[in-house]
Amino acid sequence: MVIKNLKTNEYFEVEGEAYLELFDQNITVYIEQESDIEYAELCITYLNTLSDGLIDDICNASIRYCNEFLDDIGEDIIEFNKPTDVLPYITPNTICIPKPKNKTEPVIDLELNCEWEEEHGMEWIIRNGVVMYVGPYNGINPYGHCDIGEEWNYT
């Protein structure tokens, strides 16, 4: 099993923990009531097998978020040699597994902490093999519009 230590929380969601290869650590997994373990495992497996190109897309968007935020608060921006150099500045917090619209299509909705924005953190949403949202954590519906084109979405 990909997800370990399963239990039901006070909101009647199933929660557990899963290992994320990209960050070499375990994170909390929340599975919405209308979802199931099988779909959650599909999503975690997908996250652990993202292509290098998709990882670069996520990291480049994270760098844009980082440096615009730092510039906005008058701090020096950070120079990164390659996109994945941003990852040490990011710590995954939780992944939320939504009710699937299609049980064969994994969706990633990941909440992360980041060193540059401690108050709002960061959210990544990946759907259909496309980075849909990278920006401050807003609890965005991973099946919705994902604020595409908005200034706070750095995709």
Architecture overview:
- This protein has 155 residues and is α+β, with helices and mostly antiparallel strands.
- Helix content is 21%, strand content 31%.
- The chain contains two helices and seven strands; from the N terminus they run βββααββββ.
- Strands 1-2-3-4-5-6-7 form a seven-stranded mixed sheet, with helices on one face.
- β6 and β7 form a beta hairpin.
- The longest helix is centred in the middle third of the chain and has 21 residues, at 52-72.
- It starts with a strand and ends in a 20-residue tail after the last strand.
Topology:
Blueprint (H helix, E strand, L loop, with lengths): L2 E6 L5 E7 L4 E7 L5 H11 L4 H21 L17 E8 L9 E8 L7 E6 L2 E6 L20
Parallel strand pairs: 3-4
Antiparallel strand pairs: 1-2, 2-3, 4-5, 5-6, 6-7
N- and C-termini, Cα separation: 32 Å
What does the average pLDDT come to?
A: 94
How much of the polypeptide forms β-strand, as a percent range?
25-35%
Please state the structural category.
Answer: alpha+beta
Report the principal-axis shape.
globular
Spatially, the strands of the biggest sheet line up as 1-2-3-4-5-6-7
Q: Uncertain segments of ≥5 residues (pLDDT<50)?
A: none
**Residue share in helices?**
10-25%
- Compute the number of strand runs: 7
Task: Work out the helix count.
Answer: 2
Question: In sequence order, what are the helices and strands, one letter per element?
Answer: EEEHHEEEE
Q: Please give the largest β-sheet.
A: 7 strands, mixed
What is the radius of gyration?
15 Å
